[in-house]
Amino acid sequence: MTDSDWRDLLDEIDAGRVVPVIGSALITVPDEFGIQKPLYTLLAQRLATELGLSEPQTYATTGAAAAAHVLSGRERIPIYRSLRMLLKTIDAQLSASAPDGRYLSPSLSQLARIRGFGLYLGTTPDHHMLTALRAGRPSFDAQRHHVVFHPNEAPAERDLPTAKLRGGDAYLYQLLGDQDAQQCRDFAVWEEDLMEFVCGLLEHADQLKNLFNALKERSLLFLGAPADDWTVRFLLRVVRGERLSSRSRDHIGEYIADDGPELSRSTVLYFDQAVKTTRLVRGNPNDFVAELFSRWQQTFGVEADDRRFLESLPRDMPAGAVFISYANEDLAVALNVARALHAAAVSVWIDRRQLQAGQLYDERLEAAVRLRSSLFIALVSSASESNADRYVHREREWAAQRQGGLTEEFYLPVLVDIASPKDVRLEPQVAMRRHFHNLGDDGLNELARRVGDLHRARGSRT
Fold first, then answer.
1. CATH architecture of the domain with range 3-27+105-298
2. Using one digit for the tens of pLDDT, what is the confidence trace for 111-142?
3. 146, 200, 195: which is closest to 169 by C-alpha?
4. Of the candidates 20, 103, 267, 294, which lies 20 to 30 Å from 420 by C-alpha distance?
């Protein structure tokens, strides 16, 4: 792709008009030598061994092992049971070796941090994309933003909650089932499974209107051979609702980034010659994602995104907003908290330190804390704990004095990089008597829910 091609793709992503389709080649884990390898390549021999197949070392994919098992006349149910067990075993091993107990597949972590994506389509049953979104998108809530399709299990409940996909939320829709038995009893492993799921999408199109409308309005970015390549063609036909070679050719409708060997000659010819609206980008899909993420960061990355978000907040604090108190070093954390609250429809305010000396800085900030805020969040970190003379402690003293005259919750201390409240020394005494939230694991979403409930309760009494 030329620089111009990349700019066009990035502009489409920034406008929310591209949906990445996550294939198995993007889900990589370290082997015994620490080298990143596709998860499902490493699983193939293990699955063949679990299924009792002879010469398990000859199987290159889990689909090939599953097909051999079924074609030998044996029941297919053990396939899903064995693969579930293997996925859970590897997840536990990876979590145990990760510094924070949460392993992130590199390419998936990069994709999750590209905020222009509002919808991700998963084509594998594992939870690696789910984990990446929890880490990379602070407002992502698995209860609301994770949807799994199954053709025979409550399809009416498997639609996206909306087709709009705006407002900063990100959704993960797993097209071909999920490893969690509570989500569905099986998932796509080999060709017959794929056929059942793709035909099920077609049969239940009327019950999946939000999903189909969202996909019809957007370009699809296929990454890493999502299942067999015939599935890509069939899925496109189902989603687009028309003969692909008959479409208007005024813009790119799909991108397919993959190694040449993973795509059959007929597929390459089909897209290159017959379907001019689909662009094939030959090469390693993980390298493509790394390049995409690098260019996204340069154009719309964290600094630019943070600046736009800060500029969207009012300069003066609105009455009833949530005040976030933070040390300068914790600005990125404060922004993550602010975004999560914003996504939960909570009015939030961050002091941008833009008031100049001589403009009654202290008085205006004190009034914001004491009189105008509905709740006060204190981000407690090694930075805020480093010095009792830091300005944040002046804010927190005002908030503590206000909390002392209230029976309801107002002062909400939040641990950032400190393990326990026992390690906190500089917070006011009133804070030490309160429950400390922790941003570890799923703490940000829990905090957003708690603050959202308190904020709405305040509003209902005014």
1. 3-Layer(aba) Sandwich (3.40)
2. 998 988 999 999 999 999 999 998 888 778 88
3. 146
4. 103
- Residue listed under structure tokens 């699983």: 43
What length is written for the chain?
Answer: 462
Query: Which amino acid is present at 31?
Result: D
Place of tokens 């719309």: 300
Per-residue pLDDT, 250: 58
Radius of gyration of the chain (CA): 25
In the chain, domain spans = 3-27+105-298, 38-98, 302-460
Q: What is the mean pLDDT of the chain?
A: 84
Q: Which of 201-205, 247-251, 262-266, 277-281 has the highest mean predicted lDDT (pLDDT)?
A: 201-205
Cβ neighbours for 93, distance < 8 A, ≥ 6 positions apart: none
